[in-house]
Amino acid sequence: MKQIPLASLLLALSLAPVAQAQKKPAPAASATDAKMKQYIDGLMAKMTTEEKIGQLNLVSVGFDVTGPVVSKDVDANIRKGLVGGVFNTYTPVAVRKLQEMALKESRLHIPLMFGYDVIHGHRTVFPIALGLAASWDLQAIEQSARIAAEESTADGLDWVFSPMVDIARDARWGRISEGSGEDPYLGSRIAEAMVRGYQGPGNDLTQPNTVMACLKHFALYGAAEAGRDYNTTDMSRQRMYNEYLPPYKAAIDAGVGSVMSSFNDINGIPATANKWLMTDLLRKQWGFQGFVCTDYTAIPEMKEHGMGTDEQVAALALNAGIDQDMVGEEFLKYTAKNLQSGAVSKAQLDAACRRILEAKYKLGLFADPYRKVSAERASSTLMKPEFIAAARDIARRSMVLLKNDRNALPLKKTGSIALIGPLANRQRDVIGSWSGAGDWHQAVSVEQGLRAAAPGLKITYAKGANIADDQQMLDRLQAHGGELEIDKRSSEEMIKEAVQVAQSADVVVAVVGESQGMSGEAAARADITLPGQQLALLKALKATGKPLVLVLMNGRPLAISWENQNADAILETWFAGTQAGNAIADVLFGAYNPSGKITATFPQVVGQVPLYYNHKNTGRPYGGVKLDKYKSRYLDVSNDPLYPFGFGLSYTTFTYGKPTLSKSTIGPAETLTVSVTVQNTGNVDGEEVAQLYLRDMVGSSSRPVSELKGFQKVMLKKGESKTLTFRLAPDALKFYNNDLKFAAEPGDFQVMVGGNSRDVQMVPFKLVAQ
Ligand code: NOJ
Q1: Is 530 helix (H, G, I), strand (E, B) or coil?
Q2: Which of 58, 161, 519 to mutate to test the pocket of ligand 1 (most atoms within 8 A of CB)?
Q3: Which atom of ligand 1 is nearest to the CA of 216?
Q4: Residues of the signal sequence (predicted)?
């Protein structure tokens, strides 16, 4: 077995400059590859129609149920050659059992392909994607995917259902936790980094430690109306191209091997039946050569969308360009009939079957169906010490310091703290949702992390509140294995106990937020404040007069205005994974200086959502004059976010000089260079994420007030300053106009540089036609 030694892997990753992230890597082995074509031609010539249809069938079997129904008759179907892929099964033993069934007992011995929801790590769990994004650290993000590839392949997997690159601007949507947030530029860079991490830099999927990635959910799933999961999306093409599609396109350009269709309806056509999306855009415009699977039972769900009978929805999906049916079994049951009636063609079936077989070929499954999977490899790879160390480092990079008055943080390792809150001792919650192969018993809670880091500190724990009290919500969370621990005492009793504990401590550390099941799939919330009695608990703790440090755990931006006004410090930790508690301790005690910045705007109140920094100006922008009546604003709250996109503090301070430009007027083919000096003006070393935004002042279509076009994460020693250089190539000034033409329009622009999307310094420049 050839394995890349982790040391050289990490070295290679740490040497990869950010600029390289934007280069287009070599595409995955091309569909026209002559040898592959010859092999698959030969195989398909032997296949019956039924066997070809079988390749289009993806079944769920094994450890997890990730949708509303389960696949039946799996063994019999594998033997008959009626299964192309399996998901929710892993471990060398379980995979080998099914693979042997296919290889030994099916007529043509075609290997199965094994997929799984490896979303933010496999056995070693990293922060949820929204947390990873908050690191703004492409090397760390790539490294998390690389380790997930090492582990998942060692566990028998060929295929991971990640990256999820859906742009989301609505904090009510539970799946905002699974993506990179609201920005298309950052989302694109992260999409590329994830694909590179999973598939390896050369996209060689035959390597035993590379895994095929699956880009999801195509498309626009994050724009579900009202933030309610699976809901409708209705969007102009112009908005799609400028704001929502770039991360999908970036992953395609990076060579992602497969794509998953989304559940939602797009301008009246469900994604899974959407020929424009799956064929015209994805294949013809973007040149995608891999295969497309549906999301879980998305084909039969089209009956609920009102798209017709079983036969009809099966035909719609195949004709749209879908190749594989996840759990729905509509292709399996209705394609033969649809061929007879002429609703689908043989050519369409052959094309879909060929794409699945090509994926297996690219994975090397025909050459070695076990892909070097063995119990020995699994035991020497899964959760090895280097991976655990990386998980701790990546977790602390994802954390965002939202407030820190009078240096409440870092904490001292002496004296006493009252550790309060329903999440303070939770191992299950810290690994977040979609952490199926992660064993939460191996995760580190905040309490465990603090005790390990500061044995001399007196730590007294009180729960203080349940994570939620609303019985309906509790029932829903428990119904899907939420594993909540509900304290039967009254909330008054619990708060009273917590207050007593707080009174005898020097500092209160309150670990509050959401349980892991409150974000992720089917976990929309209409109220995004702290659930249950947690706010009442915080108010009582505040009344003790003790310094109040909040450690937040949550999978979405929360509306935490009271908390922001009243806590002395707030550390956003998301669901930080296997090493959460140790990483949180590193940050709280100052062993690591926080450097994360949020990538989804935090609103003051839920009524402001969707709230995002790159909005349009309107014809009546509110200028902050209170009595200005006819303006685009609310009567009861300002337009401001609680924390703007890109915001995050450090234990040190950074000062930005005025940006300077290489030229004040440029032509259409010229690259503009922007330089800015950033200085660490505080007392400790730290990392800063310098962000560059652009505003196109006049356009043939109205333009956003600001758009991220570059960023650099830079380490500055105490007192040190560095001059950073950003290059704005001609494409950075372009946008899709009303005719969907991608072009830059001459006129005035503003460059803005700063430590977040709000606190920036501006410099104008002009683009001229020649
Ligand atoms: C449904 C989810 O939407 C998708 O993200 C996931 O990959 C599949 N189920 C498989 O579990």
Answers
A1: coil
A2: 161
A3: 5
A4: 1-21
The tens digit of pLDDT for each residue in 155-194 reads: 999 999 999 999 999 999 999 999 999 999 999 999 999 9
Decide if pLDDT at 264 tops 50: yes
Residues taking part in catalysis: 295
Nearest-CA residue for ligand 1 atom 4 is 295
59, 60, 66, best to mutate for ligand 1 pocket (most atoms within 8 Å of CB): 66
pLDDT for the residue 62: 81
Q: How far is the CA of 620 from the centre of ligand 1 (A)?
A: 42
- How many angstroms does the Cα of residue 117 sit away from the middle of ligand 1? 7
Average pLDDT of the segment spanning 602-620? 98
Please give all residues whose beta carbon lies within 6 A of any atom in ligand 1, as ranges: 66-67, 117, 161, 216, 295-296, 521
- Write the DSSP string, 277-320: IIIIIIIIIT---SEEE-STTTTTHHHHTT---HHHHHHHHHHH
Q: Which helix (H) or strand (E) holds 741?
A: none
Residue 7 pLDDT exceeds 70: no
Q: Measured in angstroms, how far is the CA atom of residue 573 from the centroid of ligand 1?
A: 24
- The atom number, within ligand 1, closest to the CA of 164 reads 5
Residues 565-585: tens digit of each pLDDT: 999 999 999 999 999 999 999
State the distance from the centre of ligand 1 to the C-alpha of 179, rounded, in angstroms: 13
CA of 311 to the centre of ligand 1 (A): 24
- Whether 381 has a pLDDT exceeding 90, the answer reads yes
Residue nearest to ligand 1 atom 1, measured at CA: 296
Q: Would you list the DSSP string of 448-487?
A: HHHHHH-TTSEEEEE--S-S---HHHHHHHHHTT------
Q: What is the pLDDT of residues 422-441, one digit of tens each?
A: 999 999 999 999 999 999 99
Residue 458 — pLDDT band, cuts 50, 70, 90?
A: very high
- Flag the least confident range among 58-62, 166-170, 192-196, 240-244: 58-62
SS (H, E, C) 81-144: CCCCEEECCCCHHHHHHHHHHHHHHCCCCCCCEEEECCCCECCCECCCHHHHHHCCCHHHHHHH
How many angstroms separate the CA atoms of 541 and 528, rounded? 21
List Cα–Cα distances, 78 to 155, 212, 231, 648, in angstroms. Answer: 21, 22, 34, 51
Give the span between the Cα atoms of 447 and 442, in whole angstroms. Answer: 14
Is the CB of residue 14 less than 8 Å from the CB of residue 139?
A: yes
Q: Contact at 8 Å (CB) between 522 and 426?
A: no
Q: Look over the chain and give the mean of its residue pLDDT values, rounded to a whole number.
A: 94
Average pLDDT, integer, range 10-25: 35
Is residue 3 pLDDT above 60, yes or no? no
User: Closest ligand 1 atom, CA of 221?
Assistant: 3
Q: Which helix (H) or strand (E) holds 218?
A: strand 212-218
Strand partners, 418: 460, 508
- By C-alpha distance, which of 628, 598, 32 is closest to 355? 32
Report d(CA 161, CA 293) in Å as an integer. 10
d(C-alpha 429, C-alpha 439), whole Å: 11
End-to-end Cα separation, the chain, in angstroms: 57
Q: How far is the CA of 50 from the centre of ligand 1 (A)?
A: 26
Report the predicted TM-score, pTM, of the whole model to 2 decimal places: 0.95
Q: Whose CA is nearest to atom 3 of ligand 1?
A: 295
Mean pLDDT of the region 231-260: 98
Q: To 5 degrees, how large is the angle CA 601–CA 606–CA 611?
A: 35
Domain architecture of the chain: domains with CATH: 384-599 (3.40.50.1700), 654-767 (2.60.40.10)
Query: Residue 717 pLDDT > 70, yes or no?
Result: yes
Q: Is the pLDDT of residue 71 over 90?
A: no
User: Which of 58, 263, 296, 433 maximizes ligand 1 atoms within 8 Å of its Cβ, making it the mutation to test the pocket?
Assistant: 296
